[in-house]
Design brief:
By secondary structure, the chain is of the alpha+beta class. The protein has helices at residues 11-20, 73-90, 113-129, and strands spanning 22-25, 29-34, 61-66, 99-104.
Length: 142
């Protein structure tokens, strides 16, 4: 299970990560990563009380979307447990304050743990090495 300070719970946080963040799609899942994260406003009831909160750096937080298209309730819960475990191990690699949403695609219901791990790692590698929007691609101008 993810620690409380590392969970996305509010719909607004999910929306922020999906709308503002970068996306990497793989055959089993789609990962949205917002490096800046949603900063809580003055009206938010929840406060970031993670290990970095005293330093002004909230912890990276993760949320999961597993729809009925993935399978029965038993299959969906299995996929969520596997994804939570995989993301928990990778949270320290994410920038402080970032938001990550992992959306399982229908094929994830029949995938093995190793297949999910492979797709998650590939998506995170792509997102973490991604250049900011607006930069010129390598080799441009030739």
């Amino acid at each position: 299970m993810l620690p409380s300070e590392n969970r996305l719970r509010r719909r607004q946080d999910f929306s922020t990560a999906v709308k503002r963040g970068r996306r990497a799609g793989k055959p089993l899942l789609v990962v949205h990563l917002d490096r800046e994260g949603g900063r809580p406003g003055p009206t938010d009831r929840e406060s970031d009380c993670g290990p970095h909160a005293a330093e002004g750096l909230p912890s990276a937080r993760a949320g999961f979307v597993v729809s009925k298209a993935v399978g029965s309730a038993v299959v969906r819960n299995l996929v969520k447990r596997r994804l939570r475990h995989l993301v928990r191990e990778r949270l320290p690699r994410l920038p402080a304050g970032s938001l990550i949403v992992v959306r399982a695609l229908p094929q994830a219901g029949s995938a093995s743990y190793l297949d999910l791990e492979h797709d998650l790692d590939a998506a995170l590698r792509r997102l973490l090495r991604a250049e900011p929007t607006g930069s010129a691609p390598t080799g441009a101008g030739r």
